[in-house]
Amino acid sequence: MSRTILRGRVLSFHRAPQDLDDTESYLYLADGAISIENGKVVAVGDFAAADLAGAQVVDHRPNLILPGFIDLHLHYVQSQMMAAYAGSLLEWLNTYTFIEEQKFSQQGHADAVAVEFYDALIRHGTTTAVAYCSSHPRSVDAFFAEAQRRNMLMVGGKVMMDRNAPEELCDTAQSGYDDTKALIARWHGRGRGLYAISPRFAITSTPAQLEASRALVAEHPDCYVQTHLSENDAEISFSMELYPDSPDYTGIYEDYGLLGSKTLLGHSIHLNHREVGVLAETGAVAVFCPTSNLFLGSGLFDRDRLMQNGVRIGIATDIGGGTSVSMLRTLDEGYKVLQLRGQRLNPLASFHMATRGNAEALGLQETIGSIAPGRAADLVVLDARATPTMRMRRFETLIEELFLLQTMGDDRAIAEVYVAGARAKSTLGGL
């Protein structure tokens, strides 16, 4: 049994920090040792006290070692169409997105895109993500097969959509149900893969399809549910035209039994008081997608309001509406969105959200998202001196360093990535 010890400055969160002085919320070791066996952390502590006998020591000083980043909402099938020019969400979907997703009917396309997509995640320090595939089952097979090859914990599912989209992308209520059921049987719990039942959003699903989604959730309560909510004013208006008997947009999903603690709701920007209460009551997660919301002009996420009302929150890149695979860039844009809201996001809260916070949103905090015995050794090594411009900024405290990484960091600041204890970034081709 081989054992590896990673040496470096270690940062891991126990819970959400209340403020910058909340040192009890996290573990910080100025010279730490993370002992890894069989893909898991078996010990963490000061390097001076570590048992080095028989271990391979990898020295990452002076860099920071954190849990790998977790991305709660993205579209791997849109990874080749980031930065597509459009004025708003529905225009963007019809002009670019639906056309791009039709390519996944072609033999071999999904496999090629999946390799590039996972390479991009690793380059940017993301070790777990929750993804929408296309409506084609082969896109799901490619997504999970590549995740299994890399031993990554990934969540994903086939998009279910039976109206208001090109015929080539539409399934039916029955075929969407049948395909999803077969894919769950094939991939959920295989390796580190987990399935997300994925009705795209109310506009592209008939009542019959949402009923089928309800049945899938009842039959597979251990699966996740992912969909979109209240991203754009026009989207909300159209949804209410299609579901006039529901009290509001959130009420559509509520009426079909799709809200619960394993439900991830991308965007959740324009919510009325009743909707906020429903999310809090059901435990559904509102997922903040800052680069996408800014790029498509959708609106400004109201983090403080949701948190004050007990709504669970996560953060995500939302590529390809989002403009970067990087969680560092996402945290930076999230900070700016909240500045415009008059809400201050401190660096501790940012990095908690991208690691343990998102793990808690998935209910996987005992598996990923922190550095502790028994957790998966999914880790990212951050270099705050990675670029000449970053080296110009002198910092003295951990808080200053984190804020510099968040504000100016990108894939160049990702010195190394470990997936289940194995080096991942430095083994990519061309790096």
- Specify the biggest β-sheet: 9 strands, parallel
Q: So how many helices?
A: 14
Head-to-tail CA distance between termini: 30 Å
Mean pLDDT reading: 95
Beta-strand content estimate: 15-25%
Q: What's the multimeric state?
A: single chain
Characteristic terms for this protein:
alpha/beta, 431 residues, globular, single chain, 9-stranded parallel beta sheet
What does this structure look like?
The protein is globular. Strand 2 and strand 3 (40-46) form a beta hairpin. Helix 11 (327-340) crosses helix 14. The chain is an alpha/beta fold and 431 residues long. It is 36% helix and 23% strand. Strands 5, 6, 7, 8, 9, 10, 11, 12 and 13 form a 9-stranded parallel sheet that branches. Strands 3-2-1-4-14-15-16 form a 7-stranded mixed sheet. The model has no long low-confidence stretch (mean pLDDT 95). The protein is built from 14 helices and 16 strands.
